[in-house]
């Protein structure tokens, strides 16, 4: 499966069919077609109904005229004109001197059209059957409904198919944007979203954004690496100069600060390598509990390790030790004892009992040179950033949370071992 197909599949899983743009367009077309069919159907029905009533009235008047003529000539009322008209016809005759017509739909199954005229004080009225006309109108309504449904059955799938191409292009743009957000700054949309429409404009904008973001990140990585390299030479001179100072409190203070600067420079170099993606993990089966105990012992913290079983992971022991060292250093600087480390299967949880991680770390993850809140100290804020970068190198997942009863909780999930257990020698 190629990347475009897999991106479409991922987009389909993330966006249910009924929420996709394709089916929204199909629903809009179906609604518009239904509205047009309804409007046309009502117009045709109404005009046909009025025409039938007009034709029925003409037939009724045509049938009434011979009766009127016969009555005026002979004074006799023909038998077909002797039926008493309904009250509605009499009421209409009271308001005119000529003939009137009236549609009698009191019984929908037997509709009539009446025609009546008052002649010499007598009302002559006839009626004609409108049943066949109304049945024809009902048949016309059914045929229009069937024709509308047939058209909808053809138009809706065609509109869905027609909307699939722009919908697929939009999904690819969205998939590319997700890849860029995940860190793949080489992802581009233009080759897959050609054309000169609005979608192509969006695709070009996403590509331009990716180019700009990549350039900014590369410049930042170069700057970080350059600063770290440039700092190493004067720092080495400072380290050598400090050894020449006489023992004393001032010398200890200067030595401490120089060591802090040296550690910062080394951390910056490590971050630049992690950002550049040039780090490669040396994976091997590692007994996790032994490595965790060794890291806690080197940190000098007051803590305890809880181990379930004999957990082993396929990982890089040096990088895992680096992650644990940064997590423990963060707990020492910003947390409070005791530090609790639990190891279960391929999961390591480091918890302290301090104020917990600040909201910015929980929401956005650790950021270099940002400690979040004053109570978490005044260091450079890059320890957790390094831990997160090293976790990515070894294929682990590092998450941060706060315990319900207080304290910061860092959870490291390591990939499981692929081969049998092999002893690890430090």
UniProtKB/TrEMBL annotation:
Keywords, ordered alphabetically: ATP-binding, Cell membrane, Kinase, Membrane, Nucleotide-binding, Phosphoprotein, Transferase, Transmembrane, Transmembrane helix, Two-component regulatory system
Catalytic activity field: ATP + protein L-histidine = ADP + protein N-phospho-L-histidine
Domain Histidine kinase: 226-418
Gene Ontology molecular function: any one: phosphorelay sensor kinase activity
One cellular component term from this protein's GO annotations in UniProt: plasma membrane
Subcellular locations according to the entry: Cell membrane
Top EC class, one word: transferase
PANTHER family per record: SENSOR PROTEIN CREC
Protein name: histidine kinase
């Amino acid at each position: 499966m190629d990347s475009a197909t897999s991106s479409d599949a991922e987009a389909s899983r993330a966006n249910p069919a009924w929420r996709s743009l394709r089916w929204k367009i199909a629903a809009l077309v179906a609604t518009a077609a239904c509205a047009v069919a309804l409007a046309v159907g009502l117009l045709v029905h109404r005009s046909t109904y009025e025409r039938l009533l007009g034709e029925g009235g003409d037939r009724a008047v045509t049938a009434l005229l011979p009766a009127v003529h016969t009555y005026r000539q002979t004074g006799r009322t023909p038998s077909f004109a002797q039926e008493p008209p309904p009250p509605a016809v009499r009421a209409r005759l009271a308001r005119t001197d000529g003939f009137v017509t009236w549609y009698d739909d009191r019984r929908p199954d037997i509709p009539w059209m009446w025609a009546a005229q008052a002649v010499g004080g007598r009302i002559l009225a006839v009626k004609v059957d409108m049943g066949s006309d109304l049945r024809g109108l009902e048949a016309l309504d059914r045929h229009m409904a069937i024709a509308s449904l047939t058209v909808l059955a053809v138009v809706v799938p065609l509109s869905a198919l027609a909307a699939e191409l722009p919908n697929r292009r939009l999904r690819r743009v969205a998939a590319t944007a997700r890849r860029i957000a995940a860190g793949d700054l080489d992802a581009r949309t233009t080759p897959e979203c050609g054309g000169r429409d609005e979608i192509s404009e969006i695709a070009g904008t996403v590509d331009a954004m990716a180019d700009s973001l990549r350039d900014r990140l590369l410049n930042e990585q170069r700057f970080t690496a350059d600063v770290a390299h440039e700092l190493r030479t004067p720092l080495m001179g400072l380290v050598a100069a400090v050894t020449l100072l006489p023992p004393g409190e001032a010398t200890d203070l200067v030595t401490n600060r120089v060591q802090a600067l040296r550690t910062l420079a080394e951390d910056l170099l490590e971050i630049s390598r992690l950002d550049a993606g040039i780090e490669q993990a040396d994976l091997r089966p590692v007994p996790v509990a032994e490595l965790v105990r060794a890291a806690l012992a080197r940190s000098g913290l007051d803590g305890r390790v809880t181990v379930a079983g004999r957990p082993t992971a396929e990982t890089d022991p040096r990088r895992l030790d680096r992650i644990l060292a940064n997590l423990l250093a963060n707990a020492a600087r910003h947390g409070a004892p005791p530090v609790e480390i639990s190891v279960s299967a391929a999961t390591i949880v480091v918890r302290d009992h301090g104020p917990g991680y600040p909201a910015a770390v929980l929401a956005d993850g650790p950021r270099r040179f940002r400690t979040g809140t004053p109570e978490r100290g005044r260091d450079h804020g890059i320890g957790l950033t390094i831990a997160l970068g090293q976790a990515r190198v070894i294929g682990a997942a590092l998450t941060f949370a706060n315990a319900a009863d207080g304290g910061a909780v860092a959870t490291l999930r390591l990939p499981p071992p692929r081969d049998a257990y092999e002893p690890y020698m430090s």
